[in-house]
Amino acid sequence: MSGHPSGREVTSVGLRGVVSERQRRFGEELRRLREGTGMSGPEIGELMGMKGPAVSHTEAGRLSLNIERLHVWLDVCGMTDPDYRAGMAAMCQSTGRGWWSEYRPYVVSNAIDLAEFEDAAKAFSSYQTHLIPGLLQTKAYTEVMHEYAEKKVEFRRRRQQVITTESATPFHAVIHEAALRMMYGGPAVMRDQLNHLVEMAHLPHVTIQILPFDCTVFASTDTAFMVMHGAQSRLDTVLVENPHGSSFLGDPEGVTKFRRKFDRIKGMALPPLNPSTSGPSPAFRDSLGMIHHIRYKLLGR
């Protein structure tokens, strides 16, 4: 039976040699949808007119799926949510090309994948332990992080436009106090970096909270991560940072754990940084007061 729009069978030709994280994520969603129906690969392949290993290649991101076949796949799997369908269509039709493409020779592949995910995200939830979040870094701070590699610094500055342009994406960051006290680049660089956090908090779509050292609740706050919210919650993707590099997580159970973890951490953190207040509150019990306190101590260094 040939159930796809063209009436032609799909074979395993034109396989991708390199699979991007977006393509891998798209394929994973197709697989989860199929498995949710209880159908095997050959069974849905029969309905889609896909022969041999074409289904497994598509679900692994090695083979593309045109938009017509995507809608058939979603229909066969009973997916009617309009936001989810729109998000999957956008992933399906994306060429993967953007401003980030010119930086492929200069940065690792994960950085390219991150920029592509950021470009498509509807919101960000970021938690950082020992570093200022990349989207909030000053140029001087970034230069220290990348050992003054010009193209890498330029790449990060370009990434920051996702939260600074007119069509900026909402960004909520919780930063551990440790990141504010690390003297990367020296006191002058850190003073400017703290000032920049205050400036960024003026933006209506940017929320910044500080998680203090004296927090008495344990919530496994050792891992830095960022949830990149998709068109629908099932399409959320998490960037998890670790000593060996970063990785992307898209399985629903894992993503849900990180969403809940972020909700708990932001509940433990100090109230959001609000530059409109006149000064630090008593005992520095808000994020602005904490930054004022640390910045003041840096003036004598």
Folded structure, characterized:
- This protein has 301 residues and is an alpha/beta fold.
- The protein folds into two domains: 21-93, 434 Repressor (Amino-terminal Domain) (Orthogonal Bundle); 99-298, Endonuclease, Chain A (2-Layer Sandwich), CATH 3.30.870.10.
- 43% of the residues lie in helices and 11% in strands.
- The chain has a six-stranded mixed sheet with strand order 3-2-1-4-5-6, with helices on both faces.
- A hairpin with a 2-residue loop joins strand 5 and strand 6 (245-249).
- Helix 4 (67-76) runs antiparallel to helix 5 (82-93) and helix 10 runs antiparallel to helix 12.
- The N and C termini lie far apart (76 Å).
- Residues 1-12 have low confidence and may be disordered.
What keywords describe this structure?
single chain; alpha/beta; 434 Repressor (Amino-terminal Domain); 6-stranded mixed β-sheet; 6 strands
